[in-house]
Amino acid sequence: MEDVLDLYARPDDPAEPVVCFDETSKQLVADVTPPQAAAPGRPARYDYEYQRNGTRNLFLWCEPLRGRRHVTVTEHRCQADVAAQLQALVDEHYPTARRIHLVWDHLNVHSPAVLYTVFPPEEAKRIADRLQVHYTPKHGSWLNQAEIEFAILTQQCLDRRIPDAPTLEREVAAWERDRNERRVTIQWLFNVHAARTKLASLYPVKSPVADH
Questions:
Q1: β-strand 100-104 against 68-74: which pairing, if any?
Q2: Which of 78, 60, 65 is nearest to 172 (CA)?
Q3: Is residue 15 part of a domain?
Q4: What distances in angstroms separate CA 6 from CA 10, 143, 202, one per listed residue?
Q5: Containing domain of residue 78, as a range?
Q6: What is the CATH number of the domain that holds 171?
Q7: Which band of pLDDT confidence, cut at 50, 70 and 90, is reported for residue 128?
Q8: How many degrees, rounded to 5, is the angle at CA 59 between CA 102 and CA 147?
Q9: pLDDT score, position 57
Q10: What is the pTM for the complete model shown?
Q11: CB atoms < 10 A from the CB of 7, how many?
Q12: pLDDT one-digit tens code per residue, 178-206
């Protein structure tokens, strides 16, 4: 935990950006009966019946200090998808960074090892050498600031019926573009001192030393 909190306390360094990464899924749901638009004195109406159109995975990374984020909609969330995200992070989004500090949780596909299952060893090592991974503690994924971005994305964009993948991609892209243009940052206030004070029960308790 303190490794991640120390990382968040560092000043902004474009050569070594701090990037938080996470993913979630979205159920695609279409209306069977067209909704009725709002009218004076009457709210919009939606029929309870709907049609399921499968799910899509959303990968999200954000750079909290610089107000950058990117969301990719994929059909699956497998090793190849994660490896592709890491390659894009290194080559497309941060091509000049010396090292990318990557924060993510302990999901089974969250490991630079996935690179070696997809790419030749030389390419896998090239990508892995540009990444320094910082894991949030088990049961402490809330320390990943990407979860804050996902909560905002859900509230502002995803908390409604979205019928298909093209609509999802279009809506997510519009949300991303708006926040990036406004350079919305995250003000993270929880630090090591607060952790030692408020989460003291999570720290190991030293056994009393017996007198000899």
A1: unpaired
A2: 60
A3: yes
A4: 7, 12, 17
A5: 2-29+52-199
A6: 3.30.420.10
A7: very high
A8: 65
A9: 97
A10: 0.87
A11: 15
A12: 999 999 999 999 999 999 998 887 777 76
